[in-house]
Amino acid sequence: MRWRGAAAYGSGMAPAGTRRSVSLDEQLCFALYTASRAMTSCYRTMLEALGITYPQYLVMLVLWERGDTAVTGIGQALQLETGTLSPLLKRLEVGGLVTRTRQTDDERSVLVSLTPAGREMEGRTATVQEQIGEATGLSREKMVELRETLRVLTVRLRSGS
Q: What distance in Å separates the CA atoms of residue 93 and residue 112, rounded to the nearest whole number?
């Protein structure tokens, strides 16, 4: 798809001097949105066999990487609010994958820890990660390049520059 710019879109349809928006298929935001939905859908199918959702999987990734982590730390890592995390953590706890413990020195702070079943699940997700990598059709190098491009885009959009 070649960028034509807003002026080229619908030329001849609008009165002279009227600016037109870029078409849906030319919108970067729409391409990112549909790619994100497709990726999440692919994960959803594979994670169902493990009994977890995609957002729960993200929480588990943080815990496998960092070990015991406060709810606020998980929220920072995933860029989610505590109110969004609480129901996810509750379902993971009911599922026997994590425990939540209030800190004695600060009752507002809750520490999330993996159970043995939660630790064991990490090995089973390696297959899911391999299948997702294959589903993308991208080489390892292309995946690294795309991930870095998306990180830079995120930083720029958040900083307003």
A: 9
Mark the ranges of the chain whose per-residue pLDDT is less than 70.
1-17, 161
Domain spans in the chain, listed from the N-terminal domain onward: 24-159
Q: What b/e readout covers 87-123, taking b as 16+ CB neighbours within 10 angstroms? A: ebbebbeeeebbeeeeeeeeeeebebebeeebeebee
pLDDT in tens, 64-100: 999 999 999 999 999 999 899 999 999 999 999 999 9
Integer CA distances (angstroms), 86 to 7, 60, 65, 97, 144, in order: 47, 14, 20, 14, 31
User: Do 104 and 84 meet the contact criterion of CB atoms below 8 Å apart?
Assistant: no
Secondary structure letter of residue 25 according to DSSP? G
Instruction: Please give the Cα distance from 56 to 63 (Å, whole number).
Output: 11
- Which CATH class name applies to 24-159? mainly alpha
